[in-house]
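Q: Is it fine to ask for two folds in a single conversation?
A: Yes, each is treated on its own. Send the first.
Q: Here.
A: Result:
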Amino acid sequence: MPSDLVSGPDLGAGYLHQLSRDTDGSTTTFTYHAQVGGQDANGPPLGPLDDFGFTPTTASCMFGGPRCVHRRFLLPFEATGRVRQTYNRNRFVLELMLRQRYANVPATVDRGVVELLRRLAEPLAAEGIEWYIGGSTGVWLLGGALAPRDIDLGTTRAGIDRIGELLTEYLIEPVGPTDWPGAGIVRAARAFVGTFHEGVRVEWAVPIEPREVVPFEEWSGRPGVARTSTATWQDRSIPVSRPEYDLVRAAEHHRPEQVEAVAAVVRRLGVDAELLAALLGRSPLDSAARDSLRAAVEAT
């Protein structure tokens, strides 16, 4: 069945954009397409869209031309209006997201956290839905000397959808099944919390069931699995995942300055030896790198 054009070609941030849908029975695959657009799209773009989950296609874009990348979402046909809304917001904030990624424009993480607390904290607590801030922003909230570029949220399966409802106007991707490079098929969403002039990207996802959950997994989507702590920031208590997660992740990504900054937070809090042992036990780091991390957090 040929693809049905929902929007486009549209211009923005150096790219030509298009939204299409392919319907098969009760499900519809919605696709964001993006292609380097040249001067007509205010190009060239500042950089590729890899960090935003886009992957190369095996063919040219629907509207012609090579070097096409895309994002796909599996949703009911009735979600068309909602997907069009998220697609358009993605286009409108993409220039700023690229500047934050490639031109050292700071993300306004502090204001993003304030807005997340305002919108999420009370409703999720009232409904008994677990959520927390992870990644570099979690470490930053604990006092780490980092400059986060986005905010990663951990939550449960129910939390994925509820957070999407609470952040509806900020969504740049619809809540639903999609492919996240490196994580596989997940139920997820992305938002850009802020305006077209300042803001921060927010992401949250859980694996598609069923699957076996490993001990202390940070993004399992199951309540009570991840080890968390509490950050006090601007007189507010914020749930955050333990910094050991980001410590091991930074080492795996070969980011020594981040390792040093996170290790300082771990030392100040006191290392969670059980968690660190579990994370290192399933890490691809070699034995020397593991020993180095242990020494870094045990140093006085």
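Q: Second one now.
A: Result:
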Amino acid sequence: MLAVRDVPRGEAAASALRERTGNAAIDVVELDLASLSSVRGAAEELLAIGAEEAPLRAIVANAGLQVLSTAHASEDGYELTFAVNHLGHFLLVRLLQEALVAPARVLAVSSGTHYGTLRQSWGFPAPRWADPHELARPREGSGRVAYATSKLANLYFTYELARRSDPERLAANAFDPGLMPATGLARDASAFQRFMWDRVLPPLRHVVPGISSTAASGAALARLAVDPALHGVSGRYYAITRDTLSSEASYDGARAEELWAVSEELVGLDTAVRSG
């Protein structure tokens, strides 16, 4: 099942996957993570599909948005990067969590940008953590910093979900796909940055560790979703294929608990869902 914002492009991707794999049961659900109502609608559709056609066994939260400024707002009035990269995924997982059939898996795609170091973040600005209410507020500021901060939020969510879940029933892990040039992530960057992203960096993946292709990172992500050898493995961080440590800051349990509570408030989860 592909959950997509652009349905025609999603249908084209699903068609290509059906042809390549021979699996006719690849469908598309419309999902705009910048709209909490869209997330709720997609969750309802996925729950219906899971009940009638095929059980839900895994969620791969892999959408990532990077814009130039934190002044942009989502449909619900939240800072756009935080809304798409964290809140939308948070709500989707929480709405589907109890319907997942054990042994289930949730994977959140984070990024090495959360480290905030030159070696591990490729010169990307470091995250700046703050009260989640503040992170959710549109304001003047760097979209690149907001992106790195949202990737740290992905880790807080993953580790908190892992702490709250029985790994035999639901395993939650985070994934760093590496630096993947020639993707749409840099579409709002300058012309020079897009040239470097699309033309200069891709050939370097053969010689520079940490630069990856969509095919290689996609295969590594798929393994985390389906490999039986990973049954019960939860609360881990995988940098492409390596099981490694995320940043020291990412293991701050107090921040993770606060983010969880504020996220429930911001997305309007009712008591029944919170206790599920």
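Q: Anything structural to flag on that second result?
A: Two points. Strands lie at 2-4, 28-30, 58-61, 104-109, 170-176, 237-239, 242-244. The chain has a mean pLDDT of 89.
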